[in-house]
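User: Hey, quick favor. My workstation is busy. Could you predict this chain's structure for me?
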Amino acid sequence: MVDLELAPLSVADAPGLFAFEVKNRTWFEENVGPRPDTYWDLATLTEIVREQVQAGELMFLLKSGGKILGRVNLTAADNGMAQLGYRIGQSHTGQGIATQAVAMALQKAVDQGLWALEARVLLNNPASKRVLEKVGFYRTGHDSIGDLECETFRRDLDQD
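Assistant: No problem, here it is.
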């Protein structure tokens, strides 16, 4: 098992996050959908991160030895429920890291007083579906993000 830390996103992380995203761009776009074109400029990304941090968004970087392996976000919190999003760098897949990261995010969600999480996974991403199922999410239906078809999942956080 890899020693992982789920560190709150900070503005100082923007350059490292930008390098991580650029390195994994093609991989991510195949598995989680594309970022807007404006995301691919360091100054713009830095401003996006600044806004997220100032707004108190629950955004985390998954790190090992200071190196960014992925990121996990708990967004759109409303009435005790939030949306879970995560992305793991291509060279770190197939090692159980995503499962560890999502399990860590569940604890962060509980610590924030959330009682449920929802997640959407592209239909062509069976690995992400397995990650969610391993940590107790269950399928609730289908949705779409723009023209991308997704399956929806949910996890109630009062489970043992």
